[in-house]
């Protein structure tokens, strides 16, 4: 159920490449996907992660703590990054991720996850790629950033298809 929720119709794939060869990942290329986090997403994620922090479920408590409303779990927001990478490179192995949480994300917020290839290295017929990772609320407000490292079986970028 959670996986289906994470791959729901709320995910809108967007692609932006700086290279002239659209099907091959190059340094500087950007991959994006946007989604709106729902009550169901927060509930399902909490079931799997056992994150029962009331800030995710109680609006009044969240507001008394200085937030506008209930918070989406930061790790749920960060899950956009491996989703973007694996949807374009099936068989990718996620190696590492650093995260800097800048601002809260609230239930109902539209968040765009962005990964930008910043270095590529071939190793034993695979590719080690370092990505700059960022999430933006309403396409302009930085809420999360960091870096990810992934091992890709190929640099050929696959089209994203609906995975419902």
TrEMBL record:
GO terms for biological process: fatty acid biosynthetic process; photorespiration; thylakoid membrane organization. One of its GO terms (cellular component) is mitochondrion. Residues 33-124 form the MaoC-like domain. GO terms for molecular function: (3R)-hydroxyacyl-[acyl-carrier-protein] dehydratase activity. It comes from the Eukaryota. This is MaoC-like domain-containing protein. The gene is LOC115952527.
